[in-house]
Specification:
214 residues, 2 domains, Ubiquitin-like (UB roll), Helix Hairpins, 44% helix, elongated, 4-stranded mixed sheet, alpha+beta
């Protein structure tokens, strides 16, 4: 474990990149001074130094959007921090999940895949149907057709699981995953809502809640 004395503070500050423990999404980049870092370590919740207000800033102090610290790591030069957190509510003061939402550049060839982007694509096929699209076809047939496909794909996963072929199991799980996402879009359930439900069952989240109650 590093000692605070080993860290390098430039003009008394060190940048802190904050990420979400569950999604691994970058939430914000803030700054800490020695005092705010010590408070963060002692309380297990993020505390920053506000450069605009020139004062300590405990995240969630007024908004309630507290960030419970999972770990803090220093980079190789000891002049930047990576803080991973379990958050309560939006990370950004604008009410968004992350402060990073506006693209300056995005490569079409190397565009990152995510469940959220797949969901948006599927939802788009519902709101703006496209001729020849299998997804649009499923929506046009209604929820009974979607549920029937989920049943069929679930059976395929079971059969593949019994067969023991890893590639086949992955293939069938992907099919099931996609069809469940179609149902989610039909029922207006977002990936974030499912993730929130899983977070309620997670042992780390339970520990955080227990600490918060003390």
């Amino acid at each position: 474990m590093l000692n605070i004395d080993e860290l390098k503070f430039t003009d008394g500050l060190i940048p802190a990149v904050v990420t979400d423990f569950y999604s691994k999404k970058v939430l914000t980049v803030a700054y800490m001074n020695r005092e705010s870092l010590e408070i963060s370590l002692n309380e297990g919740r993020t505390c920053f130094w506000s450069r605009s207000r020139k004062c300590l800033w405990r995240k969630g102090e007024t908004s309630g959007n507290v960030q419970h610290i999972v770990f803090i790591k220093a980079d190789c030069d000891r002049d930047a921090l990576w803080v991973e957190v379990v958050k309560e509510g939006p990370a950004c003061h604008l009410g968004t999940d992350s402060c990073f939402n506006d693209y300056v550049f995005s490569s079409e060839e190397l565009k990152e895949f995510s469940p959220e982007k797949l969901y948006e694509l599927i939802k788009g096929r519902k709101t703006s149907p496209q001729e020849g699209s299998y997804t649009s076809y499923l929506f046009s047939q209604g929820v009974d057709k979607i549920l029937k496909k989920i049943g069929e794909e679930s059976a395929e996963v079971i059969i593949a699981g019994k067969g023991g072929d890893k590639a086949e199991i992955i293939f069938e799980i992907a099919d099931l995953y996609y069809h469940v996402m179609v149902l989610m879009a039909e029922a207006q359930i977002t990936p974030a809502e499912v993730l929130d439900e899983l977070k309620k069952r997670h042992v780390v989240d339970k520990k955080v809640k227990q600490q918060h109650m003390k």
